[in-house]
Structure formats: structure tokens, C-alpha cells
């Protein structure tokens, strides 16, 4: 299946269109919130594996509803070498089926389902992990790349 195309603002304030990355493999991952424990685990995992990801001629894009300022702070604090994208209205999360009802301490709310997609150089989704555990996301994505 061809990855649904989108354009979002990056942590640098510049627009990024998924289809403009054709010719490269992409790990597109969705996470609920900057600088929370699970999201930090996942982001730092991709950071630590980034040399292996680059060897596979791939890039990483992280997507959450947080704004540019939050992304910049998160990226700087954890020395993240990849781009974070702002999905403030969660339209892209909805496009990928990841804006879902969640529950914490009996309270229901809408939020992003932690997930990743591995997209080949032609823009085709070759692997997807929905509701993935933060510590397992990176290894699964790397396995799909190789």
C-alpha cells in the first residue's frame, strides 16, 4: 500500500512533504507527547540506532500533536538527529488511523496511538506496527529496513 501523503511543519519551521522523500526509505513514527517517558524511550532508541538507519539509506520522521517550540526543546534536550513534525490538528494521525480513544485511570480521551511505519524508496509501506511498545519500536523498524 502506498503511504498516504501529507505535508507538515517540521521542528525547523519548514514544511516537509512525505512524497518529496521518494528515493529514500523512511521510518515514520507517531508518538503521543514530547518528553514523556515512553516517547523519550522511543525517540532515544531511534537516536541511538541512527547510524544503522543511515546505513540503510533511510530517514526518520517523528510525528506528534506538539508544536514547534515543544519539538525543538525535546530534540535539543535528547540530541535527536532526525526531524520532528507538528500534527497539531491530528489530521495526519487520523489519515493513518491513529487518532483513537484512549483511557487512563478510567478517564476516556482522544490521543495518538504509538506506531511506526517503514516506507520503501517507492513510497510503499513495507511494515507497520500499531500500538507498539516504545522499547520494541526501533528494533522492529530496523528489522523491516534490512
UniProtKB/TrEMBL annotation:
Entry EC number(s): 1.11.1.24
SUPFAM superfamilies in UniProt: Thioredoxin-like
Lineage: superkingdom: Bacteria
Reactions it catalyzes: a hydroperoxide + [thioredoxin]-dithiol = an alcohol + [thioredoxin]-disulfide + H2O
GO biological process terms held by the UniProt record: cell redox homeostasis; cellular response to oxidative stress
Matches recorded under Pfam families: AhpC-TSA
Residues of the active site: 39 (cysteine sulfenic acid (-soh) intermediate)
GO-annotated molecular function: thioredoxin peroxidase activity
Gene3D superfamilies: Glutaredoxin
InterPro entries: AhpC/TSA (IPR000866), Peroxiredoxin_AhpC-typ (IPR024706), Peroxiredoxin_BCP/PrxQ (IPR050924), Thioredoxin-like_sf (IPR036249), Thioredoxin_domain (IPR013766)
Record bears the keyword Disulfide bond: yes
Domain Thioredoxin: 1-146
Keywords from the named record: Antioxidant, Disulfide bond, Oxidoreductase, Peroxidase, Redox-active center
GO-annotated cellular components: cytoplasm
EC category: oxidoreductase
Record's subunit section: Monomer.
PANTHER family: AHPC_TSA FAMILY PROTEIN, THIOREDOXIN-DEPENDENT PEROXIDE REDUCTASE
Function statement: Thiol-specific peroxidase that catalyzes the reduction of hydrogen peroxide and organic hydroperoxides to water and alcohols, respectively. Plays a role in cell protection against oxidative stress by detoxifying peroxides and as sensor of hydrogen peroxide-mediated signaling events.
Family per record: Belongs to the peroxiredoxin family. BCP/PrxQ subfamily.
Protein name from the UniProt record: thioredoxin-dependent peroxiredoxin
Species name: Oscillochloris trichoides DG-6
Lineage: Bacteria, Bacillati, Chloroflexota, Chloroflexia, Chloroflexales
Amino acid at each position: 500500500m502506498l503511504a498516504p501523503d501529507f505535508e507538515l511543519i517540521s521542528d525547523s519551521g519548514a514544511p516537509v512533504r512525505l512524497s518529496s522523500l521518494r528515493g529514500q526509505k523512511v521510518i515514520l513514527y507517531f508518538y503521543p507527547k514530547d518528553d514523556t517517558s515512553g516517547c523519550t524511550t522511543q525517540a532515544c532508541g531511534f537516536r541511538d540506532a541512527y547510524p544503522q538507519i543511515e546505513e540503510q539509506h533511510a530517514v526518520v520522521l517523528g510525528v506528534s500533536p506538539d508544536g514547534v517550540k515543544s519539538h525543538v526543546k525535546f530534540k535539543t534536550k535528547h540530541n535527536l538527529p532526525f526531524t520532528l513534525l507538528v500534527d497539531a490538528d491530528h489530521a495526519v494521525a487520523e489519515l493513518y488511523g491513529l487518532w483513537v480513544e484512549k483511557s487512563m485511570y478510567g478517564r476516556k480521551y482522544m490521543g495518538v496511538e504509538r506506531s511506526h511505519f517503514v516506507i520503501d524508496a517507492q513510497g510503499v509501506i513495507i511494515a507497520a506496527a500499531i500500538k507498539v511498545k516504545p522499547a520494541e519500536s526501533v528494533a522492529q523498524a530496523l528489522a523491516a529496513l534490512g
